[in-house]
Amino acid sequence: MSGYEKPSRGWGFCALSPVLLSLLMAAPLGLLGEETRQLFEFDSTNMSDAASRPLGKSYPPYSLANFSWNNITDSLDPATLSATFRGHPIRDPTGAFTNGSLAFRVQAFSTSGRPAQPPRLLHSADTCQLEVALVGASPRGNRSLFGLEVATLGQGPGCPSMQEQHSIDDEYTPAVFQLDQLLWGSLPSGFMQWRPVAFSQKRGSRDSAMPCQSSPLHPTLAYLLPQSPIVRAFFKTQDHSCAFNLTFGASTGPGYWDQHYLSWSVLLGVGTPPVDALSPLVLGIMAVALGAPALMLLAGGLFLLLGRKRDSEYQSIN
Ligand SMILES: *[C@@H]1O[C@H](CO)[C@@H](O)[C@H](O)[C@H]1NC(C)=O
Ligand SMILES: *[C@@H]1O[C@H](CO)[C@@H](O)[C@H](O)[C@H]1NC(C)=O
Ligand SMILES: *[C@@H]1O[C@H](CO)[C@@H](O)[C@H](O)[C@H]1NC(C)=O
Ligand SMILES: *[C@@H]1O[C@H](CO)[C@@H](O)[C@H](O)[C@H]1NC(C)=O
Ligand SMILES: *[C@@H]1O[C@H](CO)[C@@H](O)[C@H](O)[C@H]1NC(C)=O
Ligand SMILES: *[C@@H]1O[C@H](CO)[C@@H](O)[C@H](O)[C@H]1NC(C)=O
């Protein structure tokens, strides 16, 4: 079947993404060595000023290095080109993860388009989307906010650059006008792109949208790359990592406490990131909005013209 070649091609490019490599390194299966990425939990109960100081008292973080992960082979789905790493802490004395898990779902794409679920990031062929979902774990506070430390590979002596893009178009992600991205300029160049929004329900909607804040990127100690043969194969000269924090939600809600659910998505790929064009709807609205004053000007001009003409007619009569 001709359909078979496309999927494998999709995975091939997607798997080269620096972020995905770091994620593989970070996690799942302990495949590529040790890491220090963590899942943070904060109590926002007494936070009165959520905007300026979004985080409250911090609980001891969950280190993903101390998670056990499912056998990814079981979750590989060739039809959707997806796979899920699902994990929980190996030692769970409080039983917080008895009914819960932290899942990383990776989906590769062989054509361009948008997923049905928000944030509906535009993807092109050979990119992949990573969805991080915390589901069913018992929070330690009544109003717990969660955060994630994301580690990536550095670039030369520095870190990849972080950019914020603003648009007037929120058709695909209601009320979110910002797109954040991390760009690796040099080879292997790559990107990571996300909307600053997470969702507190499986069916993401405006009602369940939580703000997602990212901290600046800092160089960190190398994540023991020597133990990571796959990563070293691609990043021979890069011996340091960079990390930043993402935090999800605000004390005012919606929050994880609603349904014990939190998901956040990011698009990963090599080369240049896809660029969101203005949607036809927004172009239409702009045409109307800009068009109406233009029409009025035109009408005004005609009126003036007619007025003048009449003036001159009167003059000629005199
Ligand atoms: C919140 O504030 C109240 C009153 O100041 C205090 O009694 C309570 O322990 C605080 N709760 C937390 C979780 O910090
Ligand atoms: C993993 O757990 C062990 C034992 O609880 C602890 O000594 C170690 O520091 C933990 N690792 C990380 C990276 O937190
Ligand atoms: C994962 O599962 C596959 C088949 O289900 C098996 O062949 C493989 O050995 C398993 N891997 C691990 C690490 O358990
Ligand atoms: C896990 O689920 C079972 C059955 O739904 C329930 O009885 C138990 O209290 C839950 N445990 C936790 C820690 O939420
Ligand atoms: C959560 O709220 C309940 C009832 O309001 C209270 O009894 C409990 O102490 C709170 N728990 C925490 C961890 O703040
Ligand atoms: C992320 O936040 C935690 C807790 O607030 C902090 O210990 C850690 O250094 C932060 N990491 C980065 C890369 O900013």
UniProtKB/TrEMBL annotation:
Record function comment: Required to protect lysosomal transporter MFSD1 from lysosomal proteolysis and for MFSD1 lysosomal localization.
Keywords annotated in UniProt: Glycoprotein, Lysosome, Membrane, Signal, Transmembrane, Transmembrane helix
CC terms in the record's Gene Ontology section: lysosomal membrane
Pfam families per record: NCU-G1
Family of this protein: Belongs to the GLMP family.
Signal peptide: 1-26
Assembly description: Interacts (via lumenal domain) with lysosomal protein MFSD1; the interaction starts while both proteins are still in the endoplasmic reticulum and is required for stabilization of MFSD1 in lysosomes but has no direct effect on its targeting to lysosomes or transporter activity.
Protein name from the UniProt record: Glycosylated lysosomal membrane protein
Membrane spanning stretches: 281-306
Compartments it resides in: Lysosome membrane
Membrane topology term: Single-pass type I membrane protein
Species of the source: Bos indicus x Bos taurus (Hybrid cattle)
Keyword field contains Transmembrane helix: yes
